[in-house]
Amino acid sequence: FSKWKAVGCNNETGHVVKLDLRSIRGLGGQISPSLLDLKSEPQQFPRDTNPSFLGSLEQLIYLNLSLASFAGMVPPHLANLSHLRHLDLSSSYDSWAADLYWLSGLSYLEYLSMDNGNISLATTHWLQAITMLPFLTELSLASCYLTNLPPSLLPSSNLTSLSVLDLSGNDFNSSIPQWFFNIRTLVDLELGSCSVKGLYPHVASGHFCGFRSLGLAGNDIRGEISEVVRGLAGCFGNSLEKLSLSSNRLSGQLPDSIGHFKKLRSIALDGNLITGPIPASIGELSNLEWLDLSSNKMNGSFVETLGTLGELNCLDLSQNNWEGYLWQNHLQGLAKLNTFRISSSLSSRNLTTIAIRHCDVGPKFPAWLESQTQLRMIFLTDLSISDTIPHWFWKLSFYLNTWVELSSNRLEGPIPLWPNVSYLSLANNLFSGSIPASIGHVMQTLQILDLSRNFSLHPLLLRKSKATIPTFSIKQPTYRKIHDKWGSFQDLDTIDVSMASNSLSGELSLSLKNCTKLYLLDLRVNRFTGNPPSWIGESLTSLSVLRLWGNLFKGNIPQTLYSTSWTLLKMIYQDQSLHAWAI
């Protein structure tokens, strides 16, 4: 048996000493009470109803039922496991507890997790039950439908060992009680998205010298960010590693004392009301890997000390009111940076995502992009760039399925072609000329091409999805022919070149027959001529929407269009020279 993956045996006696069935899929049915015959402690069980006989394993010290798909009431007989030190009942969405008074029998318990279980019936006494566990060091009751957060502890409460507390995802709808900050052994506190509100409590400086993580994101907490930092500071060699205060209403300026937290790895302050510049002391956080200051009211120029954060891999400064420029020396030391977002100017190597929107970066195309070799997504939208796309940008070796968004600038010149790009938007620029005939050959992974609202270029949308088709317009009408190189777009399901300002003319290209997966073909309000093509009904058998009215077609409607079995056919010819109308 000792060779079985889920079974552990004593090497001397051969007795089973461990059952770990969490990773064994497909087990079902009920657990046999014959487990009581084992001479030692089974550890973890899978699936079905919570077995009441577990309360008979009185010598058990470790019980882990997490991810085991148990359902039903947590058996109060667990109170008989007086030697238990570790109890994990988490991720049992169909489990519930009538009360938590049974915890009083587990006086040696050190670890308790009931995440995602329903203990709403215990919401009035859960804290009283917990505080009777003197050796408890880790408690996790995340998303347990709790609604009561007592403002104070009873005099008899005993939480002198508690170091980790997670109550996130509940619905307390109350202020943060002061007793959280009176537990001197606490190092990790997670209260994210649990409807706590009001002013951040006053905490004396130096009170949390051993604090490692503070998570209060997704609440409605008010106060000065400097007060939060001050309460966490004041200790030599501060141990704080994670500060998560996103989506609250914290205001004021980020203080210089933030640089005292030498061990910080993650700072998430996005979605608050923080003002002022980034303090220069940020550069002292040599272990920082994540910095998110987005969606605040921060302003001022960028500090060069940002460029000293050599471990940083994500930097989000978007949706603020930055001033001045972000030069290469600001970020040149960020060797590990792979995601950068800003609403103002930049440089760093090895970025995979760049999103810069709605700020003044122009008039020239950003030259620092030439050094990027790892790009997978690039968004340069509304940056006041008045330039042609440089040849070196055309030659960037993008990864497969890259997104390129360069809309709402004043870019001009011919349409660029990039291999491996699946989404390309050049909308609302000054591009001119024809769509290159080689587009299907060069951009074989292309799924969306948006060239709408350009100066003298007809709009065209090529896509594989069935999302809502946008309406396109251009500034000046031009008389052009639709190109005849459609053979490479066999997976295309939508072609929309409608609108009068396109003024496309000539006869439809026979190469459109190759687009056999077309779902929608909309050629309205152009200047197409000739007879309505019979091959539409013969070749485009997946077509559900066909719109041809407002052109210069003539003659009879082909019989092949009458005999189609389209589920949704809108075939509208409103040209005076046609011999029949069909809807």
UniProtKB/TrEMBL annotation:
Matching Gene3D superfamilies: Ribonuclease Inhibitor
Family the entry assigns: Belongs to the RLP family.
Domain Disease resistance R13L4/SHOC-2-like LRR: 190-393
GO terms for cellular component: plasma membrane
SUPFAM superfamilies noted in UniProt: L domain-like, RNI-like
UniProt entry keywords in alphabetical sequence: Cell membrane, Glycoprotein, Leucine-rich repeat, Membrane, Repeat, Signal, Transmembrane, Transmembrane helix
InterPro entries in UniProt: Leu-rich_rpt, Leu-rich_rpt_typical-subtyp, LRR_dom_sf, LRR_R13L4/SHOC2-like, RLP23-like
Main location: membrane
Protein's recorded name: Disease resistance R13L4/SHOC-2-like LRR domain-containing protein
Membrane topology per record: Single-pass type I membrane protein
Pfam families per UniProt: LRR_1, LRR_14
GO BP, sorted A to Z: defense response; response to other organism
Compartment annotation: Cell membrane
